[in-house]
Amino acid sequence: MKVLFASSEVWPLIKTGGLGDVAYSLPQALHQQGIDIRIILPAYRDVLQQFDSFKILGWLALNIAGKTRSVRILEVSHDKFALPILLVDCQCLFDRAGNPYTHADGYDWPDNAERFVLFSQAVAQLAMDELKLGWKADVVHSSDWQTGLVSAFLDNKVDRPKRVFTIHNLAYGGYFSHEEYSRLQLPAEWWSAEGAEFYGNLSMLKAGIVYSDVITTVSPSYAEEICTPAFGYGLEGVLSHRSYKLSGILNGIDTDVWDPQSDPLIPYHYSDKRRNPGKQQNKRALLEANGVEVTKDNLVAPLLGMVSRLVEQKGVDMIIEIIPQLLKWTQANFVFIGKGHPHFEAQLLQLNEQYPERVMVTIGYSEEKAHLLEAGSDLFLMPSRFEPCGLNQLYSLRYGTLPIVHRTGGLADTVVDAKLKAGSKTALIETATGFVFDTATSDELLKAITRALFVFTQKKQWNQLQRTAMQQDFGWEKSALEYIKLYVGRTEE
Ligand code: ADP
Ligand code: GLC
């Protein structure tokens, strides 16, 4: 079976969030199951610069905004990938500094509609083997709004591949104006309530939902949540009408990249059976890396970490609100690495200025620091208001850094709350792996943190939780098999 896997980001080539991780590790897992899979992404400048050489597979002529653009399709190989990587090379749209979606100042690229229309069109043509490479896809698997139009471009093709679309985050709809739609000269038949039109705009995400044969999202709970007004962003009706082809498949993690026994980005290795001294030494290294003098006190005090895009989804505002109280009432210290909304960045930096020894803050993106934070913290904060799947709580579990999470989406599906066993005053249920709270408010978060800090002082309970957390299996194999079932399954109309 031939699968073309399209994504706007793929770790380690380019990544802004969890989509990048999934677009790396899921195709590899599918490849290991014998699927003939190719990954395709735009040839952003940062990606191309990583390769000394590439093979030109050919040129596609793409019609967009009344012009025909000649776009090169490149093939590159990379030692981290056991499968071919294809790049859609259109210099005027992708050869620029900055991130895949935004300018360095954080604003969206003004031509994002054109960039991802062109990318999606190229993916659709390659899936149909219009370059005559002798490789026609049986399945084209796309993700999120950036590739939503792939399925639309294939809609009127005879003998087209099966179109699988995964929603990683419904909050990003890929909305563009009707003016832009007309300027790009997109097919008139897409502009309808049954098509890609959404309240007077184009929604590329909706196009993915409407025109695909199979829709998935990244956890079973989120698949249910998005069919309700609270999480559906107005698309709940569109989705619930299609619930017969919608399912939730939990993301896995790359257990080689995220392995406390061998992670090259952490100074000390450890395992579920022998957590210390390794974990404790990483805590020391983490404090030192943040310029904090290590003392007996801060080494034994609980250290709460967070690695995150700093956006409302992640509930970072709730944490910021309660930090002053926690600093006053407890010994807890905090360590953050994140990038995002300037307002949250400024608030965190201010806390750091006020409490330099207790609130450590790095504004920016660093894989190395993220790994050290996972290894060196005691608890991980992830009070997301919604979370399609979430990967950081999974990395945290694997690193014995107990997650504190809101019961939503993938967080609800992957973290088991440290409840007391029925009838016991001290023993926790055996499956517990972290701390889960029910309502996304700072009060509830504060209660969950207080509960976690108490358990931190109960060494027997704490050890049990850490061991159970580290023993969870979040590898990709099971989920990859579920995707394969969907790839080969009959398409229902
Ligand atoms: P989302 O995709 O919504 O951002 P996930 O938990 O699925 O959330 O994935 C986030 C990924 O991005 C994780 O691999 C996390 O380690 C990484 N990440 C987020 N922010 C940073 C940062 N500032 N530095 C390094 N890695 C980060
Ligand atoms: C999105 C979601 C996150 C998910 C990731 C990978 O960015 O916000 O919850 O883990 O995609 O699927």
How many domains? The number is 2
Q: How are strands sequenced across the largest beta sheet? A: 3-4-5-2-1-6-7-11-12
Q: How many DSSP helices?
A: 20
CATH topology of the largest domain: Rossmann fold
Report the portion of residues in β strands.
15-25%
> Helix/strand/pairing class, anyone?
alpha/beta
CATH H level, superfamily name of the largest domain: Glycogen Phosphorylase B
Please tally the β strands and state the result: 18
Model description:
- The two termini are 22 Å apart.
- β17 (402-406), α17 (409-414) and β18 (435-437) form a beta-alpha-beta unit.
- The model has no long low-confidence stretch (mean pLDDT 97).
- The strands form three sheets. A nine-stranded mixed sheet has the order 3-4-5-2-1-6-7-11-12, sandwiched between helices. A six-stranded parallel sheet has the order 15-14-13-16-17-18, with helices on both faces.
- By secondary structure, the protein is an alpha/beta fold.
- The chain folds into two domains: 2-252 and 476-488, Glycogen Phosphorylase B (Rossmann fold), CATH 3.40.50.2000; 278-470, Glycogen Phosphorylase B (Rossmann fold, 3-Layer(aba) Sandwich), CATH 3.40.50.2000.
- The protein contains 20 helices and 18 strands.
- It has helices at 18-32, 45-48, 91-94, 112-127, 148-153, 178-183, 204-211, 220-225, 229-232, 236-240, 278-289, 296-300, 316-329, 342-354, 367-376, 392-398, 409-414, 442-457, 459-470, 477-488, and strands at 2-6, 36-42, 55-64, 67-76, 85-89, 139-143, 162-167, 175-176, 197-198, 201-203, 214-217, 246-248, 303-310, 333-340, 359-363, 379-382, 402-406, 435-437.
- Alpha-D-glucopyranose binds next to α1.
